[in-house]
Amino acid sequence: MANHELLNNISHRDLRVIADRSLDLGDNTPTVLAFPNEFRQLQSEFPICFCKDPDTGQFHCAAVLGFEDNENLFFVDGNWRSQYVPLMLQKGPFLIGEPSPETGLQNVEPMIHIDMDHPRVSRSDGEKVFLKQGGNSSFLEGIRNVLEAIYQGRQHSKNFIEILLANDLIEDFSLEICLSDGSKNTLRGFYTIAENKLNSLSLDVIQKLMSSGYLQAVYMMIASFENFKRLIHFKDSEAA
Fold it and tell me: Is 134 left (phi over 0), alpha (psi -120 to 50) or beta?
């Protein structure tokens, strides 16, 4: 159960956050929310797909890290083995909170909140959140940049998915995973770019995608599918 609090340098003056990557601290996830503004970093190491929220039916972008529940194949012998860490893993226990419409507050900048029940939160170990005099630590300033990228990324994702849906450019796919021990599994429930429809788009739509920066994101998603081979290799090595 999350326990969100508005971050402040009085009640949280001694707060620390364990920044090491660890499966025991929240990195044990097979998929993580991803944003078009980080696709350039993600596409060189992770497959990027679309997932559909089972409750709302809405699409979101996701980086794939594993094939099973609680599986992250980018960990081996307790070590993280990719150069880039997705933004949603970088943020740890922090999140952006916006005033609800009921407050009547207008033009208020989003503020940093923290989940006090997150396993990374500590009073004794990890990175200091605030300096002794009450100022932000360099660690917190880095988190602020991550949260700003996520905040912007959410709007980018919304616009990106809207234009793709408007042009029928999202389709489901399945992937057969064959391991060297003879076992086979099929990955389902993910979506990707409909390449046939992409190739038949009008010049007007292509121009719209290009001017918005989303055409590049489209091709980064397509290119990222080669990373499924890498994930299968990781899975095969784990099973050996």
Answer: left
Cα separation, 109 vs 182, in Å, equals 54
Domain that holds residue 220: 4-234
Structural domain includes residue 63: yes
Over residues 99-158, the pLDDT tens digits come to 555 545 455 578 999 999 999 999 999 999 999 999 999 999 999 999 999 999 999 999
Q: What is the torsional sign of CA 195, 199, 201, 206?
A: positive
How many residues are recorded in the chain?
Answer: 240
Q: 140: number of CA atoms within 13 Å, CB side?
A: 19
For residues 170 and 181, give the distance between their C-alpha atoms in angstroms, rounded to a whole number.
34
Cα–Cα distance between 219 and 123 in angstroms, integer? 44
